[in-house]
Amino acid sequence: MRTPSRPMAALSLTVATALAVSACGGDTTAEASSESAEVTVAHAQGETAVPADPQTVVVFDVGVLSTLDSLGVEVAGVPEATYPESLAQYGGDEYAKVGSLFEPDYEAVDALEPDLIVVGGRSAAVYPELAEIAPTIDLTVDNGDFLASFEERVTTLAEVFGEEDAVADRLAALDQRVAEVRETAAGAGDALFVMTNAGEVSAYGPETRFGMVYSELGLTPTDEALTAADHGDAISFEYIAEKDPDILLVLDRDAAIGESGTAAQQVLDNELVRGTTAWQDDDVHHLDSSVWYIAPNGLPSVEQMVEEVAAAVE
Amino acid sequence: MTRTTGRRSGVAPAPRGQVRRRRGVQRWHVAAALATLVLAALASLFVGVGDLTPADLLDPDEAQARVLWTSRVPRLLAILLAGSAMAVAGLVMMHLTRNRFVSPQTAGTTEWVGLGIVVATLSFGGASVLGKMVIGVVFALAGTALFVWLLQRMVLTDVVVVPLVGILLGGVVSAAATFLAYRFDLLQTVDVWMNGDFSGVLAGRYELLWLVLAATVVAYLWADRFSVAGMGESFAINLGVAYTRVVMVGLAIASVVTAIVVVSVGSIPFLGLVVPNLVTLAMGDDLRRVLPVTALTGAAFVLVCDVLARTVRYPYEVPVGMIGGVVGGVLFIWLLLRARKRAL
Taking a C-beta distance cutoff of 8 angstroms, is the pair B67, B104 a contact? Predict the structure, then answer.
């Protein structure tokens, strides 16, 4: 899976970065002109000096892509993926494809001669390899401290592209909205977050990738014991019936990856789930799968996710 | 190597061991095994997240009746059907290829089904379960036929070469399936399909599994023919058995059963390999005698694995395929060590 490393490129990049960093450090008092040439940003895997307002950008994380899209930033390369409807144009041929969500096509990346590469989540593991090609930043969001971490990453991205003001306004509005939802959610009963995958179901707890519905949006978890496992805990329909959640949030993984075989509606429409409070009160909410599953860390995505939960707790 | 050969030649012509072993299993043993299976099956009805005790059976409330009839009973039936049929499929393949190490999992049949499922999903945009099953059956039949065709064209010097060919073939096929799945972002989905798991079984979602019962019954009715065919082509023809047809039917049974089970609940490793070997080891090679016990043992094996799968991380589930891999793997190693000692 690993590509052969390129010692010379690595070396020259290290030297270049070192020079750049030392240059920056050398004249901290420099005026705006030299500052605009390069920005040093802190990210999930260290600090990287990136050119300010980079022209050729390669993005591996669809969440980051959605943020850039909403900021009107043009990107050059994107991964081959099932894009949410709002980002459907990136699936087309006019955007160079640079590999999958997990694994870059290094030659395609190299051929674009990017000024900046952004990874995150699924692509975080290939950061070292990509960093050899061009300045790379990892905008992975920490699910244990979702909102703070997410806002930090979005702000970082805004700094690189000089969009701080617009983003700060939207984040303030988002915080406001989150506070409102929290208030409503507190009295909305307990909730269970499940994902259906090829006819089987798993549940997600407070520390997982979808844990923000509990930790940030204030829903009460039906089951506190759920672990932080990346792909949730496999459950049976009996489990759903027995735990009897007041609200059932449903993510259809098959829909998220563009498969339509066994839709979540169909999977959950059985006697056991029909007996739950959530089903009887019409509180089974099917979430926008591709936003939650493919692009959960983008600014427009989180705005939408908050609204979806708001609709569920009203 | 020489030691093993020496032992084998030393033991093979001595029927005493065989006879004693055969005498070792008596009717009441089978009855006891059957009783154990029934008890385990009953126990399985009361293991689960929903609240249901044997006492509740007398007067179940609405929720308990729902749990029993939509979840527990269908799950038990699915386990019994899949377990017995896969073990019998392994037994039939073992006899027809005259090799103890050939089973749907070592002949590449399972991998062919996997490829079939991927192709079905890609070409028919999320085909229905029935669609996946039909294409799975077609791929399993073609793949198993290819395996046998290869065997007939190879000079086999060692019994181990046969399953090795199957495993190699399976590896190639599974690589093709993985490549396709990778290209079309289906890797994790294929994982879920292939890994045996009864957690999705509900009334209305497993009924196609009943088809394997028909296949198992046919296997039993044809048991003597498979026995004769297992003795070799010329021998079978001399006895007036249509060798090619019998072999085709046998392999078709194994392929169809594998495809239906894998599409319905996924693959349970070692089931078709370890169970027939264990039973044959205890009861000898008479297919007609061994087949019913193999079916019962296969059902019991899956039953035990699934109860474990439900309890290991209670109230969450662990795929039964994983438990089966561990339990079956341990049994298989034990079998190999024992074979060394006893010269299987």
Answer: no
